[in-house]
Amino acid sequence: MKDKDSGTPRVFLVRHGQTEWSQNGRYTGDTELDLTAEGRQQVLGSAQVVVGHGNLIDPAKLAYVFVSPRQRAQQTSHLLFGDTLSQASADKVQVTTTTELAEWDYGAYEGLTTQEIHALRREHGLDSERQWDIWQDGCEDGESADSVTARLDTLISKIHDLQGPNMHGEQPCDVVLISHGHLLRGFIKRWLRCPLEMPLSLMLEPGGIGVLSYQHHNMQEPALMVGMAFPMKTHS
CA 187, CA 148: separation in Å to the nearest integer? Predict the structure, then answer.
């Protein structure tokens, strides 16, 4: 008996692997950094487990891969898929670089740690009543939460247009998003139709993969998949 949600389209969220700044807890927006050796291994390890024909991220079920323009995300994309997308399914999968998946523009906070940001804001006479919260306050000389919301909602609308006609698996339409820590956590909130300021604690490790979908094959019921079974590997 098939699961009742079998065939429902999925959106896979992939955070880029570790960089020197992510390892040190520094906010990294448009600064271009390579993955560390550990970061490359994180992505390759995820790829080994979940990417490939018959696996969780099956190229035969993919329609789009959207990638942030940042170097660390581009490297993650190449490591994640290797030559998988250059095989038979390549003509059916569109890989697109989009600024809609660029990390939050941290402005004056670029390269700083959270502690350093708090100190800077105190120097500027801010946060006298409560501590800084990026989801509400945004970044000085950078992006506001409203600006990030608009970017995310534009991409979600594109995904809905793609997946809406295929709620029962009529055509391959799974989507992979390769992006960054804050941006992907914000994407989850907007997918669930929650404001960014909603206090929803989410974690996504470097090189980690999350999954979104819909309940009851219904685009009006967006869902976060908090657990799933993995396909069984067959050995020849």
Answer: 9
